[in-house]
Amino acid sequence: ISGRAIKSGLMSVQAFNIRDYTKDSHNHVDDYPYGGGAGMVMQAEPVYKACEAARKRISDMTDIADPASPDNGDTKASEEKGRTRLIYLSPIGRTFTQEVAKELAQEENLIFLCGHYEGIDERVLEMEVDDYISLGDFVLTGGELPAICIMDAVARLVPGVLNNDDSASDESFEGNTLEYPQYTRPEEFMGKRVPDVLLSGHHANIARWRREQSLVRTMERRPDLMEKVELDKKDIKFLKEIQSEGRFSDRKP
Questions:
Q1: 85-115 as b/e, with b when 16 or more CB fall inside 10 Å?
Q2: 228 Cβ partners below 8 Å, 6+ apart?
Q3: DSSP SS3 for 223
Q4: SS3 content of the chain, % helix, strand, coil (to 5)
Q5: Residue 166 — very low, low, confident or very high, per pLDDT cuts 50/70/90?
Q6: Which candidate among 46, 110, 159, 171 keeps its CA 20 to 30 Å from the CA of 151?
Q7: Which phi and psi (to 5°) does residue 9 adopt?
Q8: pLDDT in tens, 120-136
Q9: Is residue 78 over pLDDT 50?
Q10: How far apart are CA 194 and CA 106, in angstroms?
C-alpha cells in the first residue's frame, strides 16, 4: 500500500541516517550516560543535525512544489517547524491508535525520529520533538519498526491510496468497534457455510448483520472499547437480547 502511494505521488518517504551527521571517523552516535547507569545514550549533535537536515529537505521540496511562493531570504530549516511535525518513537509516548493515525494523516509533513540504546540526549528532544508516540507497553531495539507500522497505518487513510476508500472506513477500530467477519468463495468449506444473510442480496439485512457481528466481536475480544462505542436503539436492543441468552451477562450494554 505504501509503495503504491509513493509511486502515485500521494506520499513521499525519505530516510536519514543519523550516523551520517557525526564528526567521529567511526560514525559513533552514542556515549556513556552522565550519572552512570547501564547502556549508552545517543548524542545530541548528530541527532539535531539529522533532524534539521530532514526539515531542510522538506523545505526544499515545498519550494520546488510551489515555486510561486514568496522567498523571504531566510532558509533556516527550523523556520519550517510549524509546518512539520516531528515525532519521537518511544515507550514514553502516548499509545498509537487508529484515532492517532487519523490525526497524523491530516499533517502535511511528518518526521519520525527513531532512537536506539537507552534513548536520546534529552536536550535535543526538548529542542526538536513535537510529539511522543509508542506502539504499546513493550520495548523494541529501535524506533524503525514502529515508524514503519505508523507510516503504513497513516498511508491507508490518505485519499486515493486504497482502491476503494470505503475499505479504510469499514476496518477495525472505526467507530471503536472491531471489524465484522469476512467470507469469500466457496460457499461451503469443510462443512462450514457462509452465513445465509450474506448470500441474500438484501443490503439492509447485510449491514445490520455486520453491525451486530462487529458488536459481538468487540464485546468478546476488546470489551474495553465498548465504553467509546456510540450505540443506537437497535444496537442496545440487540445487546440486551444476547445478554438475556446468557452471553456477556456481566457487562452493561
A1: bbbbbbbebeebebebbeebbeeebbbbbbb
A2: 176
A3: helix
A4: 45, 10, 45
A5: low
A6: 46
A7: 80, 10
A8: 999 999 999 999 999 99
A9: no
A10: 38
Rounded Cα distance between 204 and 151, Å, is: 35
Q: Kindly list the structural domains of the chain, giving each domain's residue range(s) and its CATH number in brackets, ordered by start.
A: 2-66+76-155 (3.40.1280.10), 174-244 (1.10.1270.20)
Mean pLDDT of the chain: 90
> How many CB atoms lie under 10 A from the CB of residue 55?
22
* Angle, helices 144-155/98-105, rounded to nearest 10 degrees: 70
Length of the chain, in residues: 253
Burial class (CB in 10 A: 0-12, 13-18, 19+), 38: exposed
State how beta strands 85-95 and 110-114 pair. parallel
Quick: pLDDT tens for 88-129.
999 999 999 999 999 999 999 999 999 999 999 999 999 999
- pLDDT (average), residues 223-249: 93
Residue 247 has pLDDT above 70, yes or no: yes
Q: What is the pTM of this model?
A: 0.84
What is the C-alpha to C-alpha distance for residues 154 and 156, in angstroms, rounded to an integer? 5
Rounded mean pLDDT of 159-171? 76
Cell numbers placing 250: 456481566
Nearest to 57 by CA among 86, 36, 97: 86
Distance of CA 247 to the CA centre of its chain: 33
